[in-house]
Amino acid sequence: MPRVALATCLALPDLDEEDTPLIPALAQIGIEGVPLVWNDPAVDWASYDLVAVRTTWDYPNKIAAFLDWADQVAAVRTLWNPAPMLRWNTDKQYLRNLEALGVPIVPTHWFPRGARHDLRALLLREEWPEAVVKPVVSAAARRTRMVGPETLAEGEKFLTEQLTQRAMMVQPYVAAVSTVGELSLLYFNGRFSHAVRKIPAAGDFRVQTEHGGRVESVVPTTVELAAGQRVLDAVSEDTLYARVDLLPTADGEQRLLELEVTEPSMFLRWDDAAPGRFAAAIGERLG
Question: What's the CATH number for 94-104+176-261?
Fold first, then answer.
């Protein structure tokens, strides 16, 4: 029986609940799925037939070690998604690359580590009543703040402090987040599988469930599907798994908020056939 290593983190040694349905789905097609902590030195990654990155959700605090691990694994065993893609995707400046290829993104200002800023002037110049400030390497809304007129001084202090340690980015707050939420389109081996909508709790802007957000299964429109496909076409490289997060903006366009090809939650519990699709995609990669 082929064995597939499912890389996770120490806090989730058995995977997140959204990923656990993958293991029985793999077993149904004759593949053993084994969750393993990515930075456990005792793991022999070469002894597995394939390594799939899953819930390695502690990597933002260990980014150099994580990318080194990916390179080391890829040198001895097939890794999905590939190590160069992980290196590209873990820094949100990949959005600049996609924008240059014609993908509409949420407008973004980038600040390298150590940069000086005038957040007040930026918001006035761009006519953004509110903005979201976050690191270029982050996950699950960590070190992320929403800044508005009443919190501008606090936001400026936060951005100044963060820039002493890491590169940051500033985007306008898109009001649709609070009304229609973020749309996540899920793909396996480049094929659309299913979709969910993530909606923040009242009074919050973060859609993650750990911050009170909720998830709904949805059927995307043809316009939304076309927007997602445009993103994947721009990447032009194979992916085992991909999640495209879209936001509708006031101009009526579906804009890319995030392309997740490192360790995204694939919301397997929200579509009965999704675990089987993911397992089949892994089976295809095993050849």
Answer: 3.30.470.20
Full DSSP string of 84-151: HHHHHHTSTTHHHHHHHTT--B---EEE-TT----HHHHHHHHT-SSEEEEESS-STTTT-EEE-GGG
Query: What is the location of CATH 3.30.470.20 in the chain?
Result: 94-104+176-261
Distance in angstroms (rounded) separating the CA atoms of residues 282 and 266: 14
Average pLDDT of the segment spanning 102-123: 91
Which segments of the chain belong to CATH 3.30.1490.20? 109-172
Structure tokens given for 192: 């659309």
Number of other residues whose CB lies within 10 A of the CB of residue 146: 16
Comma-separated ranges of CATH 3.40.50.20 domains in the chain: 3-84
Place of tokens 């690359």: 97
Residue from 14, 79, 68 nearest 41 by CA: 68
Show the DSSP H helices in the chain as ranges: 22-28, 63-76, 83-89, 94-100, 119-126, 152-163, 176-179, 222-235, 274-286
The answer to whether the beta carbons of residues 52 and 266 sit under 8 Å apart is no
First to last CA, the chain: 13
The per-residue pLDDT for 250 is 72
**What pTM was computed for the model?**
0.89
> What type of residue is 241?
Y
Q: Looking at residue 18, what DSSP letter applies? A: T
Do residues 53 and 263 make contact, with C-beta atoms less than 8 angstroms apart? yes
Task: Give the model confidence (pLDDT) of 210-225 as tens digits.
Answer: 555 578 999 999 999 9
> What CA–CA distance (Å, rounded) separates 264 from 274?
14
pLDDT band at 201 (very low <50, low <70, confident <90, very high): low
The domain covering 109-172 belongs, at the CATH homologous superfamily level, to ATP-grasp fold, A domain (3.30.1490.20)
